[in-house]
Design goal:
Layout: H1 3-29, H2 32-47, H3 53-59, E1 65-69, H4 75-91, H5 93-104, H6 110-146, E2 154-158, H7 159-176, H8 179-188, H9 194-198, H10 201-215, H11 221-255, H12 275-282, E3 287-288, E4 294-295
Parallel strand pairs: 1-2
Antiparallel strand pairs: 3-4
Helix pairs in contact: 1-4, 1-5, 2-4, 2-6, 6-7, 6-11, 8-11, 10-11
Length: about 300
Amino acid sequence: MPLAEHLRELRNRLAKAVVGILVVTIVAAFFYKDIVEFFTDPVLSSVGCEQSFTELSKEGGDEVCARIVLNGLITPFTLALKVSLMAGLVLASPVWLYQLWAFIAPGLHKHERKYSMAFVGIGVPLFLGGAFFAYVTLPTMASVLIEFSPSDTDNLLPLDELIDLIVRMVLIFGLSFELPLVLSMLNLTGAVTGKRMLSWWRAMILGITLFSAIITPSTDPLTMMALAAPIWILYFAACGFSLINDKRRARVAAEGPGDDEASDLDLTPEDIGDVEQVSAARALPEQATGEGERRLNGYDDVT
């Protein structure tokens, strides 16, 4: 298509994606309190205050707990918009991802479409698995962090900061689980072999462990291992897939191209000698007709 047609199609695709996000955002705005409770309830169940600070002080206990607070009069409204928009982007992802795919797919080859569909089909479950691990480990992380607070104190948790922390942890865990998929795609494109990938195992284990220790806010080994152990397993799974794919590629190369595949051309230059002699040898002899006409290579002077 001409450039103007591409731009017009891009505009239409973007408009449909924005409309889908707005519709889901408006619907999510009616349930934003439920969405907030879904993310904060696990944290409060592990560190929340079941009694008031005054009651705890009278009992003389040294318990440490946390309370969720909102600062400012406009904060609840801005938080509702933020949470609703976040839910709209996530829940409407099938709509805008389809629009993006519909715009890009006509320009891709058949094998490129196959790889991209496999990337999306495997990448989404991996991301959701990482997000689930983040959601499960958040209560443990919160209970460890709250222990650093002095005794007989209430730890006030601004709700907007808590939501930002939860979203950041979900994104970090989800994207971390995409590492084996990236390595597998590099192997499929021939950029790295499975044997070479497996030779990195010491550095990869150390790097994944350090990354998990730095990226998790808590200092407990349980939360760190909850992030590092699944990535270790997925890394070795990617190495196993790459080794199997390398064996398959070597077997196909040894068998040669199939009946419906083009053979490789031999482009090695040859010594052809004198060009004039080769041309003369390849030319057909002159042909003479019974009428005395001379024909060169089957053609007369006119043709």
